[in-house]
Amino acid sequence: MTTVNETPAVTRSAAELEELDRRVLLHPHQNGAQHERRTMVRGSGCLVWDARGVELLDVMGGGNWVAQVGHGRTELAEAAARQMGTLEYFTGFDIFANDQSLMLAERLVALAPDGLDRVFFTNGGSEGVETAIKFARLYHHHRGEPDRTWVISRHFAYHGTTYGSGTATGFPGMHQGIGLGLPHVAKVSPAHPYRAPDLAPGRDLTDFLLDELAGTIDQIGAGNIAAMIGEPVMGGAGILIPPADYWPRVRELLARHGILLIADEVVTGFGRTGAWFDSAVRGMRADIAVVAKGLTSGYAPLGAVLVRDEIGETVAGGDAYLFHGHTYSGHATACAVALANLDLVDREQLVGRSATVGEWFGAALAPLGDRPHVGEVRIAGATVGIELVADRGTREPLMAGAVARELRDVHRVVARDYGNTLVMAPPLVISQPQVTRAAEAVAEVISRLGAGGE
Ligand code: PLP
């Protein structure tokens, strides 16, 4: 693997940078009580370095489910430089496009599940989800069903943080103190087999979830519902893998009521959970798919919304005027980087490698299976969720924050805590020894919890 940036262009000391950080920077998802700061300055493969020269093993894809091809890839730096030297940007509004966005759109359509044939570019996931919701409503509006405004999402879904996407997000804390969110958003239960309710004999989790969804549809009235949105595998909720029949049955129920299905593939896409588009292998047959993150491996901010031809035609064809778009929709440099990134994912067969990474983690984490504070280990492609419990009998959640902190500060391994689940989503280029190192560190920290550590 070729990487760049052996000598970071850092001109200030670590202490100066940390002081600067406290003084001027507001971090996304910042915890005001947390005063520790760490300035990252360099990366190569799965390793990253902070301004103090400390090396960390990144098993969280740039800390945020990104970095499919690893850090510091010259191929992507060169693609960006080439494009910036040719045409860095030109608007995509009105009649204009740039060649890179057209070629990327063509590439995405070829990779996407059948039927998703039109592409709209955004700067990231939240904008993608906003766009998907708007398109779903617009589609019904243009077809003479303007009452179809409701969106069904799920508790503990993560769909972004802007007003529309944030309302679809199912973490209650996100909605506090900001006034009203998007009207007409309803939430149903996520497919979480480990926390399934007690069911009557002969009924399984999917039966229960489908009944709940059907009840919600009845209550709102099918003619008032535009779409349902869901992550094929829920990431921020802690790697929740649905039963195999969940999405096909949801799809069928929605189709019966003329409700569109939006697959939020921001995390799952581009090999993260083992397929180019995870929705394709889970039987979602989505009408709209939102991607971001792995599209560029994080080397440039970019997202995309793919829609069925008929939806594209309805919202932007004929005499419709699509009053929606961003200055940087289809940014030429971001699209050139995405094309080069997809080349690497393809050439290095990283989509297939994702499952192998998951198998390495599965084997290396097997000893955790009988630890008293491990409720469940869930693996989907190269994502791992370890749900911690105070007691295996009651399944009372045990928050994972202390584990993630100790991993980072003592073992120098970057994972993340999502409530009571420890999550890993490494670059897909991670080596087996690196997986072993991460898994051993995780096992050590969690085993000490078992010995009364927390
Ligand atoms: N959708 C999912 C499934 C996500 O995990 C995220 C971010 O983590 C988003 C949407 C929002 O994407 P962004 O942070 O790029 O706005």
TrEMBL record:
Keyword Coiled coil on entry: no
UniProt keyword annotation of Chloroplast present: no
MF-aspect GO terms: pyridoxal phosphate binding; transaminase activity
Keyword field: Aminotransferase, Pyridoxal phosphate, Transferase
Stored InterPro entries: Aminotrans_3, Aminotrans_3_PPA_site, PyrdxlP-dep_Trfase, PyrdxlP-dep_Trfase_major, PyrdxlP-dep_Trfase_small
Signal peptide: none
Highest taxon of source: Bacteria
PROSITE patterns named among the record's database cross-references: AA_TRANSFER_CLASS_3 (PS00600)
Family: Belongs to the class-III pyridoxal-phosphate-dependent aminotransferase family.
PANTHER family attached to this UniProt entry: AMINOTRANSFERASE, AMINOTRANSFERASE CLASS-III
Annotated protein name in UniProt: Aspartate aminotransferase family protein
Organism: Phytohabitans rumicis
